[in-house]
Amino acid sequence: MHTTHSSFVLSSSTPILIVVCGATATGKSGLAIRLAQAFNGVILNADSRQVYRGFDIGTAKPSRAELAAVPHYLIDICDPTKTFTVAEYQAQTYPIIQQLHTSAISPLPLLVGGTGLYLKSIVRGLRIPRVAPQVELRSQLQTLGQPHCYALLNQVDPAAAKRIHPHDPTRTLRALEVFYVTGQPISAQQGESPPSYPILQIGLDCQDDATDRLADRITQRTRQMIQAGFVEEVEALHQRYGKDLPLLKTLGYDEIGQYLAGAITLEQAQALTILHTRQFAKRQRTWFRADPTIEWFDADQPTLVEQVSDRIQQFMNNLPPLNQ
Fold first, then answer.
1. What is the arithmetic mean of pLDDT over 185-208?
2. Domain 135-188 has CATH 1.10.20.140
3. Most exposed of 31, 64, 137, 207 (fewest Cβ within 10 Å)?
């Protein structure tokens, strides 16, 4: 690390946001901690499962030592029996960024994670209807069947129906839910309102033969999770919340759950977790690559920290005066 970065303190007159994103297992958390230490920064979690208490090893949540080394926000803020929506994430994240921007010591906010919708909600300022899931309403709509529901959507919100595939029940139900709760089409309540402060998005990827190199990282991390007690974590979660908890059906937790149920061996659970994680990482890469504003760096580059630090410094040096 360059010594010129080690004592850097961001001026309160220059509010900015640095995003560190990319597919799973690309080393986002490790890089972010190094950057936070160099730039007087704090980390805001943008991983949709790390917000839940008790889901630690399987979500690659920062260790106690890492959490102690740098201030972290938006980790362990929700009970696993509840659903933490994108709207709630946005509603909690914006005030934290504002607080950091107006703080006397002006720490640099680093938004870090791989949940694309979380990141987009902040960077693009998605306008999200504040309508909580309506269990009874959804149940009633589901009994009608997707064709009937989609026909209803065509009637009440044709603009939304044009953007939603006829065989997409999740988005169809959500659009109907918003309409029946608010009386307004979801299409009229959506859009974007980006924040006014400058944002630099740093993307991590394994360039040059990316698939094989990222696959190696995923394989290594999955093995490390199991060695660190992932099976015991899932078993404890089963005992506390029951096997039907929706979060226990997510990546890694579902495969280990199958092993605990005796359906597959631990080796098979590990292999399936690796396979499904690789598939998930591919979808993440597709999502992030569609955003032309992300600046990409090679996750395996030995001088990665220095390269990204230099880019952040350059970004800040080129900011226009606040009064312009």
1. 89
2. yes
3. 64
3-state secondary structure of 195: coil
| 52-67 per-position pLDDT tens digit | 999 999 999 999 999 9
Look up the pTM and report it: 0.86
Nearest Cα residue to 30 out of 310, 312, 314, 300: 300
Architecture of the domain whose range is 3-126+193-317: 3-Layer(aba) Sandwich (3.40)
Q: Average pLDDT, stretch 170-189?
A: 90
Query: Would you state the pLDDT for residue 237?
Result: 98
User: How far is the C-alpha of 292 from the C-alpha of 306, rounded, in Å?
Assistant: 23
What is the mean pLDDT of the segment spanning 114-119? 97
Nearest Cα residue to 294 out of 175, 204, 177, 206: 204
Could you tell me which residues are beta bridge partners of residue 41?
108
Length of the chain: 324
CA pseudo-torsion sign 252, 253, 255, 256: positive
Query: What local confidence, expressed as pLDDT, does residue 210 receive?
Result: 52
Taking the C-alpha atoms of residue 73 and residue 118, their distance in angstroms, rounded to an integer, is: 14
Task: Provide mean pLDDT across the span 180-193.
Answer: 88
